[in-house]
Structure formats: C-alpha cells, structure tokens
Amino acid sequence: MIIAFLISFTACIVGAICGMGGGVIIKPVLDFIQFGTASQISFMSGCTVLAMTTYSVGKSLKSGEKTVDVKTATPLAVGAAIGGVIGKTLFNTLRDMFANRQMVGAVQAAALAVITLATLIYTINKEKITTRKVTGPVACCVIGLALGVVSSFLGIGGGPINLVVLYYFFSMQTKTAAANSLYIILFSQLASVLSTFVTGVPEINLFSLLLMMTGGVCGGITGRKLTKKMDNKAVDKLFIMLMVFIILISCYNAWNYATPAMILPQRTNDSVFVVIG
C-alpha cells in the first residue's frame, strides 16, 4: 500500500508542475504493477487527481494568483465536466462489450500511447506552429467537452492533452497553461467521480484509496513550491521527458493487458463493493 502512496505523491508533484494532474502517470504505473482492474485503477486515480487539484486550485485562488484565466477556463471547465460524464459512460459501455474486461485496459493504454506521442510531436515543434486565440464561451465549452470525454475515458484526469489544447487554441505560455489545466481537470474529475458513484463504484481497498489521495495532496503541495523555482523552459523539458516515459509504459501495458485476454477470454465481475482495511 505504501507503493501506492509513493506513486501518487511523485506523480502529483510532476502533475502539479506540468499541469497534468498526475493521473496520466498514476494510471499507467498502476497498470504496470497490476494494482487492480482497469475500472479500479481509473476510479482510484480519478479520486487522487481530484484531491490534488482541489488543493492546488483552491490554494491558487485563495492566494490571489493571476495565473488562471477564469473567463476562458470556466467555460472550458464546464464543458470538461459534461465531457467527463460522457467519457465515463463510454468507458462503461466499452467495458461491457468485451468478454474479458482486461481488454478495456489494453484499449486505454494504446489510446494513451497514441495521444501522448502526438502531444510529444506537437510540443517539440510548437515554436514553429502558429497558435490561435479562442475567446467565445461557446467555443471554449465545446473544446472543454472534447477534453473531458477523452480524459475521463482514459482515466487520466487531463494529462498532456489539456496543455496542447491550451497552447494551440489559447496561445498560453507553459506555466500559465499548467495552472489553467489544473483548473479544468478539477471540474472534469469531479464530474467523472460523481458519475461513478451513480453508476457503481468498483471493488476497492478504501485504505489504499485514502493513502493515494493523501499522497496526491502532499504531491500538490510540493509541486506548487517547486513550480515557483522553475521557468517555462525547465517545465517544458520535464514535460517532454515525462511524455517519453508515458509512451513507453503505455505501449507495454497495452501488450500486457491484451496478451492474456486474447489467450483466455472470460468475463469478470466488477461488483459494486468497497473494502475497508
């Protein structure tokens, strides 16, 4: 269980710095160590990211920091919250389509690898790309909707997808995009977690979940302190290294999930049950 705390703590340090929430690290790493089923890991990762972003965004707003563009980020966040519910529904639909539900993990991992690779290519070449400046609330809401669907379906909170969207559509600098990304992730993860409570919480170890959420908040505290000492270039370098790691581990996870599922397909029971202890 301590390993779950350490993974959440480390992931949320990096997530707070880069604006990725931490789920994009927690999800594939827990998949890698086979911490649970795809449904269990998605839910626990989502709760951890929600705890971290609640602290980080709350602290930022309380201290009067001007890093979050509320006028732009709020309709994005509202759209992301709606998208979060849709993404969770899509995940549940896909899960029920497979005889062996481990295949859902394979699909998630493969999709995450492809999306992260595209994000890496964009980030490396972003200085050569002409960006836009979207301002309309309806357009922001639609963009946020797409972000929420993808991030909730993948169980990652927001990850690198948010940052690329904020770079390209809103011409934000790295650290500004990171702060606004956490604001968006807060809304999308809240909607996603609440929808899970409505549709059914997978069987989990409650003590492990609490440890992970504690690790997430501690990581958020540490990440905020480190962010103040880093410039945009340093954050970009950390972001690129992280994406390479995510691509590699996601490719492995896709293969690891898919291989036994194709050899011995069977339906498992994702019951609504919470284990205490």
Your description of this structure?
The protein has 277 residues and is an all-alpha fold. It has helices at residues 2-18, 23-32, 38-62, 70-97, 102-125, 137-154, 159-170, 174-199, 206-227, 232-263, and strands at residues 204-205, 274-275. It has one domain (2-275). A two-stranded parallel ribbon has the order 1-2. Helix 7 (159-170) crosses helix 8. The termini are close together. Residues 264-277 have low confidence and may be disordered.
The separation of the N and C termini measures 11 Å
Tally of separate domains:
1
Outline? globular
Strand order of the largest sheet: 1-2
- Average pLDDT works out at 84
Content-based structural category:
mainly alpha
Oligomeric organization of the protein chains? single chain
Which helices and strands appear, and what pairs or packs with what?
Layout (H helix, E strand, L loop, with lengths): L1 H17 L4 H10 L5 H25 L7 H28 L4 H24 L11 H18 L4 H12 L3 H26 L4 E2 H22 L4 H32 L10 E2 L2
Parallel strand pairs: 1-2
Helix pairs in contact: 1-2, 1-9, 2-3, 2-10, 3-8, 3-9, 4-6, 4-8, 5-10, 6-8, 7-8
Summarize the structure.
The protein has one domain. It is built from ten helices and two strands.
Features:
disordered C terminus; two-stranded parallel ribbon; 277 residues; 10 helices; 2 strands
